[in-house]
From TrEMBL:
InterPro entries: DUF2252. This is Uncharacterized protein (DUF2252 family). It comes from the Bacteria.
């Protein structure tokens, strides 16, 4: 059982535990949060969440914050801009708008202003769950979690943000970035498109691509063509050639998401791909007692926080509104990828370096955005890095919550197979 939390002097509510809770409550929480998502895609999300405890954790960020809000408060920490859904597979490569390739945090759908410890405890929980999934023992998992927090604290204490690119990367991340640098649009086109009657279009053989009805295709193509011609963020002299529905991620499955193939009108056989993803309110928001900025839209929230947390912004990062809904636009890049954790399980030393880098990058993202619109200043972050008393309680909570997730997952799989969510 996880610890309790008191708020405003009122009796504490216990964190839900699937061993003694009404099972209907767990599924009511899942169904309530996912209401409004596309039903046919939601089935795929629920199917993906049944794959492993780690993927269930990725798909239930809202459960994490619901439970954290009813647990014993973590030690005080400075306010910081956080990505909100930090886990070991939310770090990856991308090409910045300066044309260089970086390794950094790469998912900001749940980003908001919150205690810095919220980012850390979710990340550490993911370490415990992922290590358990690949059969790495609890002692090694704890050492890695401690390493992550040490690297984070040491970077905060220095007070200077760092970045990782091919010239500064080490070990697995260095190899990963050098491989990413060699990826080309030709590779991406070969994977995702076909030539149909001498026209290049998206392949529907790709399991991530789904056909759209002609009316919606035409409306989307016209919308992006208008965005290209009017937005300062858009690429000049490109025409929309193909549109499909795109499936990606875990937590974001069920959102409206479209992929556009653009062809240059100036350069022969030159293409770009744009990803346009619906943005909803950050799932931690109802459970974080911190006043937030009044963003124009959730897409504006995502892009603004991403720009302040990353060392260099990703290329073609923008926003739009379609049919009254907020969407994030970004380039689908051949270099964009994440390090799959299960591929590292046989390289403990290499994994050690990766976790160390992740701690450095987490601290750097908070230093980079420190003192901006409500976040704590650099001096407060430095002081937090120098202190150590908060680390043990955070580790213990993360360890206990990892066990909680595994219990949730065990019950989820049983009832999912019985058709509970059909």
């Amino acid at each position: 059982m996880l610890p309790k939390k008191t708020k405003g002097g009122s009796p504490a509510a216990e964190t839900p535990n699937p061993d003694n809770m009404d099972l209907i409550e767990l599924f009511e929480r899942l169904i309530a949060f996912n209401a409004g998502l596309l039903p046919d895609m939601l089935e795929l999300k629920y199917e993906g969440m049944a794959e492993s405890a780690f993927r269930f954790f990725r798909g239930t960020c809202h459960l994490f914050y619901e439970d954290l809000a009813h647990a014993t408060p973590l030690p005080l920490s400075p306010l910081a801009w956080i990505c909100g859904d930090l886990h070991i597979e939310n770090f990856g490569s991308y090409r910045g708008d300066n044309k260089l390739v970086y390794f950094d945090l790469n998912d900001f759908d749940e980003a908001l202003l919150a205690p810095a410890s919220y980012e850390l405890v979710r990340m550490v929980t993911s370490i415990f769950i992922a290590f358990d999934q690949v059969k790495i023992g609890p002692r090694k998992a704890r050492r890695m979690a401690e390493l992550y927090l040490r690297s984070y604290s040491a970077t905060l204490e220095l007070g200077k943000a760092k970045s990782i690119e091919p010239r500064t990367a080490r070990g697995i991340v260095c190899d990963f970035l050098k491989k990413a640098e060699k990826s080309t649009y030709k590779d991406l086109l070969r994977k995702r498109t076909i030539n149909d009657r001498k026209k290049r279009i998206f392949s529907l053989e790709d399991e991530r691509h789904f056909k759209l009805d002609k009316k919606l295709q035409a409306e989307l193509a016209a919308h992006i063509q208008e965005w290209i011609s009017t937005s300062s963020d858009g690429p000049y002299n490109y025409k929309v050639k193909s549109v499909v529905f795109r499936l990606a991620g875990t937590g974001s499955i069920g959102l409206k998401r479209y992929l556009f193939l653009l062809k240059s009108t100036n350069t022969r056989q030159h293409y770009l791909m744009l990803d346009m993803k619906q943005c909803r309110a950050a799932s931690p928001l109802p459970h974080v007692a911190v006043q937030q900025l009044q963003w124009e839209s959730d897409a504006e929230r995502v892009t603004s926080i991403q720009r302040r947390m990353q060392n260099v912004s990703a290329a073609l990062l923008s926003t739009t509104s379609f049919r009254g809904e907020s969407f994030l636009i970004q380039e689908l890049q051949p270099v964009k990828d994440t390090i799959k954790f299960k591929l590292l399980k046989d390289d403990y030393r290499g994994m050690y370096q990766v976790i160390d880098d992740m701690g450095v990058l987490t601290a750097s993202s908070q230093l980079r955005s420190g003192g901006l619109q409500g976040s704590s200043n650099i001096d407060d972050l430095i002081a937090f890095g120098r202190s150590t008393e908060w680390q043990a309680p955070l580790l213990e909570y993360a360890l206990a919550y990892a066990e909680q997730v595994k219990r949730y997952y065990k019950r989820y799989v049983k009832e999912y197979k019985d058709g509970k969510l059909a």
